[in-house]
Design brief:
The chain folds into two domains: 1-136, Rossmann fold, CATH 3.40.50.620; 139-242, no CATH class. The chain contains ten helices and ten strands. It has helices at 9-18, 42-57, 83-89, 109-118, 121-124, 133-136, 140-151, 153-164, 170-180, 244-255; strands at 24-31, 61-68, 129-132, 186-188, 197-199, 205-207, 210-214, 219-223, 230-234, 240-242. Helix 7 packs across helix 10. The chain is globular.
Length: 271
């Protein structure tokens, strides 16, 4: 009788990657620096680092990128953040929000909490390269991805329709189809209020999504839901961010990602 030894799911993932016969492997994961770190945040990071260690032992070159998503907007703040501070900064990208602690001197809210997370890696032996997303969007190579997405908006909408629509109930299908009529895959930082989204009184989130793409001018028109300002922003201004469903594959393409973990929330209906 042969005793069967169960295989850990991480080993199965490693085998799937190995089957591609790659000479280099790129791992990626992301974190929004929205507050103090907790142990659950390390899950995806440790998964990637475990894969890194396995392949490095095999003599394979591994790149491991952690995207610090400081271009994400503040949808809410933790309880320990001053209420007036919250009101003044809700809806702004974390990279553009000042450090909430006056005696600290950090460059931004994002840097304060992002570096707090990074400082723990040495205790776990985690080795990765940090990519600050706001800084990434200031670079031409990411701005070229914005242009590519805008030039292919209809193709992107068809992909989203194919994969998301079947997962929705009838009411949400109607909402999705209505949204798709005017949907453009980028959001803009309002030059007047510095916000990239607005949180309404009922708690609903309204991104400052572009409403028109001016292809010849390589710019977009936006109407800020937070302050009502309407403006025009160049693709190459560093003030535009891709919608997360497009931001994710844009980074994969730019960094040639091999593998990235994802939470169950990305696999549920409409996720």
């Amino acid at each position: 009788m042969v005793n069967k030894v169960s295989t850990h799911w991480l080993e199965e993932t490693v085998q799937e990657i190995s089957n591609r016969n790659l000479t280099e492997i790129t791992l990626s994961t992301g974190k929004t620096p929205s507050g103090h770190v907790h142990i659950g945040i390390l899950r995806e990071i440790i998964i990637c680092d475990a894969i890194r260690r396995i392949f490095e032992k095999k003599g394979i070159k591994v790149f491991f990128y952690l995207f610090m998503d400081d271009f994400d907007a503040a949808k809410r703040f933790p309880y320990y953040i001053n209420e007036d501070y919250q009101k003044n900064n809700l809806g702004k990208p974390f990279a553009l929000i000042p450090c909430p602690f006056e005696d600290c001197g950090c460059e931004s809210y994002a840097y304060h909490f992002g570096n707090e997370l990074i400082s723990t890696f040495k205790h776990f032996g985690i080795k990765n390269e940090i990519v600050w997303t706001y800084e990434l969007y200031q670079k031409r190579e990411m701005q070229d991805k914005i242009k590519k997405a805008l030039d292919n908006t209809n193709r992107i909408k068809e992909i989203l329709k194919k994969h998301i629509l079947p997962t929705l109930d009838e009411d949400r299908k109607k909402q999705f189809n209505d949204m798709q009529k005017t949907w453009i895959p980028v959001m803009a930082i309002c030059e007047k209020c510095n916000k990239i989204q607005n949180r309404a009184k009922d708690g609903s989130i309204h991104p400052n999504r572009a409403v028109k793409y001016l292809k010849k001018e390589q710019a977009v028109i936006f109407e800020c839901p937070a302050c009502g300002y309407s403006g025009k922003t160049s693709i190459f201004s560093g003030k535009l961010k891709l919608n997360w469903r497009v931001d994710w594959p844009a980074k994969w393409a730019l960094f040639k990602a091999t593998c990235e973990p994802a939470g169950k929330d990305h696999s549920v209906k409409g996720g």
